[in-house]
Amino acid sequence: MRPDQPCLLTTKDFAILEVMLGRCLGRDDPLRPIIAAKLAAARVVLHEDIPAGVVTLNSRVRYRAGDGPAQTRVISHDEMHGLVGSILPIRQPRGLALLGLAEGQSFAVTQNRQATVMTVLEVIYQPEAARHARSKLSGAYAAPRLRLVHDAGPLSPGKAARPPTNSDDPGPSAA
C-alpha cells in the first residue's frame, strides 16, 4: 500500500483493528506492524458509503500472493470451522493485508522474514454493496408489507365496540 493509496475501512472494521492492536502481545507480534500501518493510513467511512470494490470483512476476494496463482477467499474475523480452505482470517498476516484495499491495490506483508506482495484482483462479493443493492431494489418496488384481508366495516356513530352482554368478563372497570 503506497501512502497515496489510503486504506478504506468501515467504522466496524476500524474498531475491530483497534481492538486487535490493543491485544497484540508485544513488539514481536507479527500482526502489530500491519495493523499499525492500516490504522495510520485508514480513511474511515460508514458502511453505506464504502465503494463496492473495497475489501471489507466477509467480502469474497480474488487476490494474488506474490507471483502465485490467483486465489479466492472470504475475508473473515475468525477461523470458521466447516469452511476449510475458503476463509482467510484477518488474524493471519495475509488476510489482514487485504482488508481495506481496493481492486488493484497491493500491500507488502513480511512473514517468516520473507516479503510477499498481496494484490486485490477483484472483490467478488461485498456485504455492504449487497445490502445497498437490496435496499435499492426494495425501494424501487416498494409494496406494502401488510395487507388488509378483512374489514368489519365502520362503526355506527355513537356506538362503541362493546363485549356481548352475556359475557362473564367484568371488563376494565373491575380492575
From TrEMBL:
GO molecular function: DNA binding; kinase activity
GO biological process, one term: regulation of DNA-templated transcription elongation
InterPro entries with a match to the protein in the record: GreA/GreB_C_sf
Keyword Kinase in annotation: yes
Region (Disordered): 151-175
Cross-referenced SUPFAM superfamilies: FKBP-like (SSF54534)
Keywords from the UniProt entry: Kinase, Transferase
Organism domain of life: Bacteria
Protein name per its UniProtKB record: Nucleoside-diphosphate kinase
Origin species: Kumtagia ephedrae
